[in-house]
Each structure stands twice: as C-alpha cells, then as structure tokens.
Amino acid sequence: MRVLGVDPGLTRCGLGVVDGAGGRRVRAVAVDVVRTPPDAPLPQRLLEVGAEVERWIERHRPDVVAVERVFSQHNVRTVMGTAQVSGVVAMLAARAGLPVAFHTPSEVKAAVTGEGRAGKQQVTAMVTRLLALDEAPRPADAADALALAICHCWRAPMLDRMAQAQARSAELARAHRARLAAARKASGEAS
C-alpha cells in the first residue's frame, strides 16, 4: 500500500509518501514541505498548496491519502487555515478517485512512538528510525507527514477488519430481526 501523508498547514504543509510492505515494514518514498508566504492572499495560498498536492498525487500514485484531522487549538486562525488546507487535500484526493483517511494527532503519535502525547522531537526520532533514514526529516511538518503515512499503513488493516466485522454484525442483526418478525407474524396467525 502506498500512502500520501499530509500534515496540513497554510505556511508549511508537510507531504510524505510511504510504502507499506505488510506488517510493520515501511519504506520512505518521498518527503517535502510546501511553503506559502503568510502575506499572500488566502485563495492564492490554497491554490499553491493544492497544485503541489496534485503534482504529488500524479507523480507518486498513492493508494490512499492520510490527512491529519483538524484538532481544536487555541489559535482559531491557525485552525481555520489548517481546516481549509485539509478540505482542499480531501477534494483533490476525491477528484483523483482516492480514499481519504483522517487520523488525529494522538493516533499518529501513539502509532509511531507508543505514546499519544509524544513531542515533536520524539515523533521525528521514531520516524527517522522506522524508515531507516540517514537524517531526520526537517522541519517537523515533514516528519509529521511521514508519521501520518506510517500510522495509516499500520492502522488500515485493523480498520478494514473492524469495518468488515461491523458490516457482518449489521447483516446478522437484520436477519435476526426478520426472523423475529416472521415468528411474531406466525404466532399472531396461530392465535
């Protein structure tokens, strides 16, 4: 499975592609950060980030796009920019026919470090180690994008199994309700 991880942001948007080779084996394919000037108009910044994400989708042909779920922060302006970039990325992935998975920061941190409250340095160190990189990805947005991709590689099989189990459970519940309704009807006719 090839995953494009996106750490959304207007000033710095991290992009990382990871190949999952089954189990816990992962391999880095590419990593970069898209930067936009803070003084540029918002539509232009979104356009620049979107154009680069489109290039990455075309160039790296991911199977899925994993995006950090916008989490409440104290700075509303930062949250809005992050949410807008997330929306652009999700729309571009959908246009390319790719599924989009959203992971919270704590899910990503727990996946790569074992601790949902790990700091940026710890995440960067583990990403460097897990991907056997010669040097740590910089800035932290780059490491976060790779961490998102790793997280999805590891969590996707479990999430698929859970979805299958939920679908099977719903199917069994429907069959059970149908049998109950038939039994009630039959017992009503017998009276």
From TrEMBL:
Named cofactor requirement(s): Mg(2+)
EC category name: hydrolase
Organism: Pseudonocardia zijingensis
Protein family: Belongs to the RuvC family.
Pfam families: RuvC
Subunit structure: Homodimer which binds Holliday junction (HJ) DNA. The HJ becomes 2-fold symmetrical on binding to RuvC with unstacked arms; it has a different conformation from HJ DNA in complex with RuvA. In the full resolvosome a probable DNA-RuvA(4)-RuvB(12)-RuvC(2) complex forms which resolves the HJ.
Task of the protein: The RuvA-RuvB-RuvC complex processes Holliday junction (HJ) DNA during genetic recombination and DNA repair. Endonuclease that resolves HJ intermediates. Cleaves cruciform DNA by making single-stranded nicks across the HJ at symmetrical positions within the homologous arms, yielding a 5'-phosphate and a 3'-hydroxyl group; requires a central core of homology in the junction. The consensus cleavage sequence is 5'-(A/T)TT(C/G)-3'. Cleavage occurs on the 3'-side of the TT dinucleotide at the point of strand exchange.
Entry keyword set: Cytoplasm, DNA damage, DNA recombination, DNA repair, DNA-binding, Endonuclease, Hydrolase, Magnesium, Metal-binding, Nuclease
Name this polypeptide is given: Crossover junction endodeoxyribonuclease RuvC
PANTHER family xrefs: CROSSOVER JUNCTION ENDODEOXYRIBONUCLEASE RUVC
Cofactor note: Binds 2 Mg(2+) ion per subunit.
Main subcellular localisation: cytoplasm
EC number: 3.1.21.10
Residues at which Mg(2+) 2 binds: E68
Catalytic activity: Endonucleolytic cleavage at a junction such as a reciprocal single-stranded crossover between two homologous DNA duplexes (Holliday junction)
InterPro entries according to UniProt: RNaseH-like_sf, RNaseH_sf, X-over_junc_endoDNase_Mg_BS, X-over_junc_endoDNase_RuvC
Location of the active site: D7, E68, D141
Name of encoding gene: ruvC
Annotated binding of Mg(2+) 1, by residue: D7, D141
Domain of life: Bacteria
Localisation per UniProt entry: Cytoplasm
